[in-house]
Every structure is written in C-alpha cells, then in structure tokens.
C-alpha cells in the first residue's frame, strides 16, 4: 500500500509528452531501451501487479480490471500497482499504458517510491473514458530499486470500473522537447485597450528592419497602418521583437485585429467597459476561497460546496485547533478566513498583505464602495468589499495568542494540515489534522498593521469592531516590540507553505505607519521616523509582496492624509519609485515594468508586476500626470496577453487564458465533475526557478517569460492565491475608475 499524498518537496526533471497533443514527436528508438515492467501486457495473468482498497484485480478480455468502490476520500485509497522497479537518476523513461474508465473519473498514474516517504517522481492524472493510449517521458531524479508504478483510482463518491493494459516503463529513451503553442506572433492585450489610453503591441519576428502593420476593425476594414519599430532581442524572452504603437486609434469597438509580418493577432476590443467587470470578478474570487462557510450555489452557480473545516468528518476542523507538538498547550477556534491558495492552509503573513491591499484599494478608489459582490452579507449596509475582507480580518484576530498565555498578543504565523494532501480534494473532505504553528514577529506585525488599517476604515460602519481591531493592533505591536526576532523558519514547510521571513524591519515600519495613520499618536510616528526603512529605497525590482512590506507603509504614508514631518520626501520617494518602474517599462519591448536581476522571475511574478503598477498608480494620484496612468495601462497589457506566451493570465479574460491554476477544488483538469477556477482568477505566472516537478519536466532551461505552464500540477508557476488576486483587483478598480 502506498501513500502518494506528497505533492511537493520532490525533485524530478525531464520532459513529458502526452501523445495526441501534437506538441512533439518521440525521437527514434535507441538500442539501449529497456522495459522495466514485468507482464505489462497481462499475457500471464495479473501478477506481479497488485490491487488494494478491497479491490480484486482480474483479467477481462486480456486487460486487467478492478471494480473501484465508491465513498473513499483520497486517490490513494484504491490502487493498482507493481513494485520493485529499478530507476536510474538522470535516465529518461517512457511511461505508457492503455486505460479505460466506466465513468469520467481520473486515474492518478504515478511513478514513485514504494516505501516511506513515498516520493513522487512523475505523475499524470488523465480523465478516463473509452480505452485510450497514454504516453509521456520524464527524467528520473533518483536512483532506486524500490520504485513503483501505480494507478491511484480512489476518491470517487460512486463505484466505477477501471481497466488497464500494455503498462510499460522503458528506460534509455531520448528526451522530448516541449514546445508551447504560442499562436500568432503579433501579441496584444487580448481583452481591451482603453479608448484614450496607450495602445502597443509586440511582434515576434526574425526581421531586423521595420515592417508594415495594419489595424483592422471587426469587418476587416483597415482603420490604421504604420511601420513597426525593431527592438532587437528581448532579454525577458530571448526573442527578436518589434513593437507597434497604435495609440492614435481611439474609436470604441470589438473584434479589432492587428497584422504584421504575415501574422494576425488574436482579436481585442477598444473599450473601457470590461474593466468594470474585471474589478468585480477579481473581488468575487474571495468568497469562493472562504473557509468555514458553505459556498452558496445560488450566489456562485457551479461553485457551491459544503463548508470546509467546520469540525465535520472527515475534516478534523478548525474549531479547536492544537499547536504543533511542544509549541503551546492551549487550543484556538480559528474557523473562517480564506484558504490561502490551492491548498487548505491559512497563513497570517499572507492574509495580512492580501487584506492590506484590498483595504488599500477601497481607501484609494471611492468607486469600490458601491461594487456589489453577491455574497451572503450583501445588502447589510456595509460595502461588500468590507464585508468580504472582514471574513479574513476576523480570522486574523483569532490567530492572536490570548491574554494569560505565553507570548500573549503575538500571532501564530500560520495554521494548516499536518501533511501535504493530494489533488483534487475539496475543503470539507480534507482528513488531515490541523495545527497552529509557532508565533512570529512578522505575523504579529501583519496583524498589527491590518487591524490598525481596518480600525480607521470600518469605523464608519462598525464602531465596536473598529475599537476591537485597534486594541488588537496596539497589543500586537507591543508584543512584537517585546519579541522582535521570532522568525518563521524555512524548514517549517511540511503540510503547508513556510512563508519564512527573516527580515522584519519592514513589517515594523508598516505596522507603525498604519498605527500612526489611524491614531495620529506620537509613539508611532516616532517609530516610523526612526525606522531604517523610512529613508531606504523600498522600491526594488519588485515593490512589495508578503515578505517585503515596507512599501505598503510608505504608500499609505504618502497617500492617507496625515501630519508626519517630512511628508514631501515620502511623496517624492513614491514618485521616484514609479519613475524607476516607468524607465524599466520603456526599455521593455513587452511593456513590462519589471526586470529582475539576472532575468530571474519571481514566484508569483504576475502579482509583482501588478504591485509595481500600484506604485505607478500611486504616483498618478500624487502628481496627476498622465504618463503614470499610461504606465499602468501598458503594464496591464502584459497580464492580458501581450507576452511571449500569448496568454491572458486571468481566467475567462481574453481569447486564450489560464484556466488550470493549481487548486485542490477547482480541479477540473483532474476531475471533470469539478469546475475550473472562477472567471477573474490570476495565475502566478512566469517563475524561472520552476520548483515543481511538472514544470521541471516541461520547462527546464526556459528563459524568463517562458517559465510558465497552464497545468494544475505546476504549483510554482500556475497557482492562484489571495495575495495575487488582490493587486489584480486593485489595478482593475483603478482602471475602471479612470
Ligand atoms: O508565494 C509564495 C512564494 O513567494 C514563496 O517563495 C513560496 C515558498 O515559500 O511560497 C509561496 O506561497 C505558497 C504558500 O507557501 C502555500 N500556499 C500557496 C502559496 C502559493 O504558491
């Protein structure tokens, strides 16, 4: 019996090809190819294959079949497999089989370690139907004589029948090369350019001299033309590119196309309307991320589900959660909040920046007050954005250590499953024990900053809550000052993300800034002024994220009315930061205001790009200058399709968009009964470190923008998170308000 629940922490490299995708053709067979599976054609009965979970493996028309019982929770609760397989590190293997399923269920086909810790070396989860051939290649990361080929077929509510034949694992095969389908070489914002905004496109071409271009309306009539501007080789993609500027066209319309160098772009609009919808969709994302409440099918057709982690089996619940062994001897009720991402963890550090950014959007963009989100609280007299964020704020407050306990006033860094779970797994079906992890200075300051910010923003709607939040913020801030170096370690990453944060001067600065802005008190302004962050250049390659929060404090000091001495310098620093991002953008032939050192694109790069745009938008508010507005709009083009992969990174926006973001419950790619992520969900985006095995199998050697793949297995390039949708919502709200 095997537990393949480890979806992370495993290194596999190589390339994989699904036959029939037309992406690449296997190379010629080499003489050294060796079959590792015994009796894969089932010509001599079913041995040495085995089945568990109460299933009997039996021959049926020359294939091996099992009747899979219904009502199991996990894929690995029912397995057909073969053990004692040799793997050699660095060697390429072709893994193939024919399989069928009586219902449209997925089989998790795994090559992995047959013994504890059950590492996964390669996995795919095709959705089965009539008999079909499946085939991939991968490179083994490990040498072992204890590998296993397994078909995990559990996790179905109803019984079904699984059959398999011609199971093969051949070593010594040539590696495959993955070629993404990038469509036409003319790259545009596939959604919409604003009528009065800048309009730029990028053409991928070998030509080095200017080429003619034409803009056609939806009837094919040419409405503008000109010549491209050769830009040489773009560092971020390695491509030779030209740019096109068609800003002079201002006529609203749908279905425009741009043609250059014999290629015609995907269609796009010239219109502002769609950004009002994007603003709403990006914010509606949060309701379906909620923990501790049933998602109402009537409010989100196709997304209804039972409440997760409310102490109903098989959940172990969030109502009475202990600490990890040795960490504390009390228990907390930490129900509620948003699930962080595609996992079921809830993290104060990341919840903090998400709350801050959404509340910041609310404070900066008055139009947001009236936006309805169709959530259970709608119509209660409080703006829906505040209703939604309150769901997370209440959770953050629950993570604070109660008075009378050691570290009272500090916040636990995070709470999540004891072990990683596999995909798919709806929140209410997660069987893992939940645990509180140690308190940390960073989490405590996240709580202080956001609770202080909430105190000034919610005052108008809920005085009692505002007072409670402010008291919690003061307590947290004092506790952090008393415990200034309780740092969350990188090693605490089993069952949930580490969110390790070794630098907390930024969090101190941010929390002091929010407390000062809300109370006006000298004790907090003194801490702001004496912080080394106050005079530092906080606008680096990426302005801010969950681990770097000084810019959040700086932006609010610059924009929320206050009487801090030296405000001119604070404001000037924001303008200088925006100028830096504009300069990067001008150099960039895809118009991206982000150029990380060594072309090393960060995990969640799309959110970093959007956060840089938030700084540019802040400069627009401070100065009123159009160039900043134009910088934001041009940056958005990258997110919505003007990029090397010709993809919109927002589900449901643009002709080709991300839709298989890594999530345990929007797992349609693995189980057709589940939905894709809701429209308006941002994918993490290019990440040159490609930490997950699937991305490694497809993208090893990728350059910058190419380090992304729209596959549910790619948690390092294609996850969805609460902190990434926040800047999308911020920017969409900004654009909608223009
Ligand atoms: O977004 C996070 C990224 O910046 C970190 O480098 C990475 C490793 O710690 O973790 C990312 O956050 C993940 C978190 O740890 C767990 N939930 C999913 C998050 C997005 O992948």
UniProtKB/TrEMBL annotation:
GO terms for biological process: cellulose catabolic process. Residues 275-731 form the Glycoside hydrolase family domain. Belongs to the glycosyl hydrolase 9 (cellulase E) family. Residues 35-157 form the CBM-cenC domain. It catalyses: Endohydrolysis of (1->4)-beta-D-glucosidic linkages in cellulose, lichenin and cereal beta-D-glucans. Residues 181-265 form the Cellulase Ig-like domain. GO terms for molecular function: cellulase activity. Transmembrane segments: none annotated. It comes from Paractinoplanes brasiliensis. This is Endoglucanase.
């Amino acid at each position: 019996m095997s537990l393949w629940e480890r979806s992370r922490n495993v290194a596999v490299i190589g390339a994989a090809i699904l036959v029939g995708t037309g992406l690449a053709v296997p190379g010629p067979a080499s003489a050294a190819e060796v079959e590792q599976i015994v009796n894969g054609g089932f010509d001599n009965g079913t041995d040495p294959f085995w089945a568990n979970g109460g299933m009997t493996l039996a021959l049926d028309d020359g294939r091996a079949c099992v009747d899979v019982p219904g009502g199991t929770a996990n894929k690995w609760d029912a397995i057909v497999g073969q053990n004692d397989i040799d793997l050699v590190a660095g060697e390429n293997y072709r893994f193939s089989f024919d399989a069928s399923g009586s219902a449209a269920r997925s089989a998790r086909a795994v090559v992995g370690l047959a013994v504890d810790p059950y590492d996964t070396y390669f996995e795919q989860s095709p959705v089965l139907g009539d008999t079909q051939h499946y085939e991939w290649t991968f490179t083994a990361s490990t040498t072992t004589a204890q590998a296993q080929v397994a078909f995990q077929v559990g996790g179905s509510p109803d019984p079904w029948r699984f059959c398999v034949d011609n199971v093969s694992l051949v070593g010594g095969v040539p590696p495959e090369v993955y070629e993404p389908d990038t469509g036409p070489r003319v790259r545009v914002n596939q959604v919409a350019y604003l009528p009065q905004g800048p309009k730029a496109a990028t053409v991928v071409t070998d030509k080095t001299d200017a080429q003619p271009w034409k803009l056609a309306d939806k009837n094919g009539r040419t409405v503008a033309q000109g010549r491209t501007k050769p830009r040489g080789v773009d560092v971020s993609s390695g491509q030779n590119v030209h740019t096109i500027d068609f800003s002079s066209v201002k006529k609203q319309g749908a279905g425009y196309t741009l043609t250059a160098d014999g290629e015609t772009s995907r269609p796009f609009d010239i219109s502002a309307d769609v950004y009002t919808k994007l603003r709403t969709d990006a914010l509606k994302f949060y309701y379906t991320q909620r923990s501790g409440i049933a998602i109402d099918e009537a409010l989100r057709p196709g997304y209804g589900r039972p409440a997760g982690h409310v102490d109903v089996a098989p959940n172990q619940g969030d109502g009475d959660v202990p600490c990890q062994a040795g960490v504390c001897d009390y228990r907390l009720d930490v129900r509620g909040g948003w699930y962080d991402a595609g996992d079921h963890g809830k993290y104060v550090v990341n919840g903090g920046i998400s709350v801050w950014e959404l509340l910041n959007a609310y404070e900066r963009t008055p139009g947001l007050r009236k936006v309805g989100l169709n959530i259970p609280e709608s119509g209660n007299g409080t703006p829906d954005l505040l209703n939604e964020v309150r769901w997370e704020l209440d959770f953050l407050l629950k993570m604070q250590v109660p008075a009378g306990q050691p570290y009272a006033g500090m916040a636990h860094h995070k709470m999540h499953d004891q072990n990683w779970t596999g995909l798919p797994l709806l929140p209410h079906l997660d069987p893992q024990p939940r645990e509180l992890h140690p308190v940390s200075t960073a989490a405590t300051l996240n709580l202080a900053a956001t609770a202080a910010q909430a105190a000034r923003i919610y005052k108008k709607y809920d005085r009692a809550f505002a007072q409670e939040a402010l008291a919690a913020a003061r307590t947290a801030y004092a506790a952090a000052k008393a415990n200034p170096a309780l740092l969350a370690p990188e090693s605490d990453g089993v069952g949930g993300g580490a969110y390790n944060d070794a630098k907390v001067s930024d969090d101190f600065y941010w929390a002091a800034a929010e407390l000062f802005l809300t109370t006006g008190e000298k004790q907090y302004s003194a801490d702001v002024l004496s912080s080394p962050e106050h005079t530092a250049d906080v606008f680096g390659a990426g302005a801010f994220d969950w681990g770097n929060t000084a810019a959040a404090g700086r932006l609010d000091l610059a924009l929320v009315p206050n009487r801090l001495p030296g405000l001119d310098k604070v404001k000037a620093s924001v303008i200088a930061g925006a100028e830096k991002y504009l300069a990067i953008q001008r150099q960039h032939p895809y118009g991206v205001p982000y150029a990380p050192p060594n072309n090393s694109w960060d995990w969640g790069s799309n959110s970093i790009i959007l956060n840089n745009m938030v700084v540019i938008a802040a400069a627009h508010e401070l100065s009123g200058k159009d160039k900043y507005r134009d910088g934001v709009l041009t940056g958005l083009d990258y997110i919505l399709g003007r990029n090397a992969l010709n993809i919109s990174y927002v589900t449901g926006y643009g002709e080709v968009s991300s839709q298989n973001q890594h999530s345990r419950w929007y797992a349609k790619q693995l189980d057709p009964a589940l939905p894709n992520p809701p429209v308006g969900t941002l994918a993490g985006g290019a990440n040159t470190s490609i930490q997950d095995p699937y991305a490694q199998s497809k993208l090893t050697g990728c350059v910058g923008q190419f380090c992304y793949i729209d596959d549910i297995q790619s948690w390092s390039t294609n996850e969805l998170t609460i902190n990434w949708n926040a800047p999308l919502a911020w920017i969409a709200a900004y654009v909608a308000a223009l």
